[in-house]
Design a protein that fits this description.
By secondary structure, the chain is an alpha/beta fold. The protein contains 7 helices and 14 strands. Bound molecules: zinc ion.
């Protein structure tokens, strides 16, 4: 299984970098997980979207899904036959928001003519050829699901956005590679309101990897100052395995 980082920015982008977007290849399939602003331009460096088997979206925050709008423009401006439409799996309950977005860009059918839209059910595994992907709900400011992916006997866990929670531990359990958000520089940045958490400190990503017995930790969705070394150091203090900061346009064998 191979993971390619197309974007690692949090909602406020790092200069020259896309927001969340991860290409996962395994079991004979190629799936794009999350599609934030800037991701489609990065994807097109490598693949035409027709080479994708699916797009899967973790939650309806702009930094994880707004480039669905852009992706539609890659296709000719007419309805494609249904069997040629790209499979796009959205989080449960997102249909109205997606319709609002389509209307907001001027056409209620903006997505339907190119995408075969569906919603996952919040817990059941999805299969893409030999790639199995199980959504696990996390704790965030809106409903959000991370994904536990298995193919070719390897396990990749993607946290999406999350506060520390039981779902996060389930996601990460025994992962060969834990792709974890590490959005926060301080806990003060998480307050909205103060009693609700929605993101992780790098140290909490490290603690999760340790509890879960993960083999490697890859930090993402973080502001990059000194190349992210501060985040890597903080996570490595809590996890004995390999810790790296995700590099855009780099592929990682899982
Ligand atoms: Zn979010």
């Amino acid at each position: 299984m191979r993971l390619t980082v197309l974007g690692r920015s949090p909602a406020s982008p790092n200069p020259g970098e896309a927001c969340a977007g991860y290409l996962v290849e395994g079991g004979g399939s190629r799936v794009l997980v999350d599609i934030g602003p800037g991701v489609v331009a990065e994807l097109l460096r490598r693949h035409h979207p027709d080479e994708l088997d699916a797009v899967v979206v973790s939650h309806m925050h702009a930094d994880h899904m707004l480039d669905l709008v852009t992706l539609r423009y890659v296709y000719p401006w007419r309805a494609r036959p249904r069997h040629e439409r790209l499979r796009v799996v959205m989080p449960p309950g997102s249909a109205d928001q997606l319709l609002d977005l389509a209307r907001g860009v001027g056409n209620a059918r903006h997505f339907e003519d190119s995408f075969r839209l569906s919603e996952h059910d919040g817990s059941s595994s999805m299969t893409f050829g030999g790639l199995d992907m199980r959504p696990i709900e996390t704790v965030h400011f809106i409903p959000c699901w991370g994904f536990r992916m298995e193919a070719d006997g390897r396990r990749l866990a993607y946290t999406a956005d999350t506060a520390p929670c039981g779902g996060l531990d389930d996601l990460a359990d025994g992962a060969d590679l834990l792709l974890s958000e590490a959005t926060l520089r301080t806990l003060d940045e998480d307050a909205q309101p103060p009693e609700q958490r929605g993101h992780l400190l790098p140290a909490e990503a490290g603690e999760t990897a340790t509890r879960a017995g993960a083999k490697r930790l890859l930090l993402t969705h973080l502001p990059i100052d000194d190349g992210g070394e501060w985040a890597r150091r903080d996570a490595a203090a809590a996890f004995e395995g390999s810790v790296e900061v995700a590099e855009p346009n780099r592929s990682y064998e899982v």
